[in-house]
Amino acid sequence: MKYASRQKLKNLKLSALILVVAVVCVVLMVFSWIFIRQSLFSSFGNAHSLIDCIPGSVVAATPADFPPRWRMMVPPPAISVVTPASLRFAEKILADEVKAYDSKFVADNLFYIFICNSFSAKGVKYAGSQDGANIWISVGSDRDLELSGDEIAATFHHEFAALLFVVHAKQLDQIAWFAEIPKNKPFFGDPFTSIGRGMSSTRPNPSGWSDGYFSDYSRADLGKDFCVLWEAAFSRTDELIAAICESPKIRTKVLLMRSFAEKIGGRLPSRVVEAVVTSDR
Fold first, then answer.
1. Which of 36, 161, 209, 218 could serve as 247's disulfide partner, Cβ 3.0–4.6 Å?
2. What is the C-alpha separation between 136 and 116, in angstroms, rounded?
3. 3-state DSSP helix/strand/coil percent for the chain, to nearest 5?
């Protein structure tokens, strides 16, 4: 009887110890995740910290805002600081574009929108980029061409799509997407190659719609194809609806994109959803 009581007490102590260890492990995991995310995406002392960030805030970018992995690139990306006038112009445009998404969706997926005059990496100038937590948009006249308001809006939606694609890649049915790619006209593969061939435009090109490509840039790779269609859904709606009605392949891709958006708590514009649902009737 004594032995049974001692054994029971021993088991209770062991269970209590296991519970304490489990709680400590959970606490350590939570704090580790916070530390890792802060380390990956923070500004390391810059005024733009994640702690007091209002999701979707538009701020002037500096090299100090680069995430660590960008700083380790050889050579690292290069930017030039935006002028106050250009920053105010971008703020005005982007305030409306951010509202195209549910506020919770933005809060769950985006920290800052960094604005600079120019952005280049590996010798290529970009209108925008993303780092997994923030969006970068180049608006200034020291690029090849200063962005208009419509182009700033389109770049925002394109880079937000790229960010979502990277973070939530498993939520997109990529096998079904690849099934819509013509075997005789596959992706070019390397986006730098497509840019080098003059295929960097995200503007609609109806000559490629029958093959399922909304624009020339869509032909680079699956990620670019996805981003071009997402950008079009929010900034070139009329052209995308025309493409949906004309191309079964584009319609299927938009259906896959709609499913992706819903899985991660987002939604496509109602006009696009209506078009993709009714176009097959």
1. 209
2. 8
3. 55, 10, 30
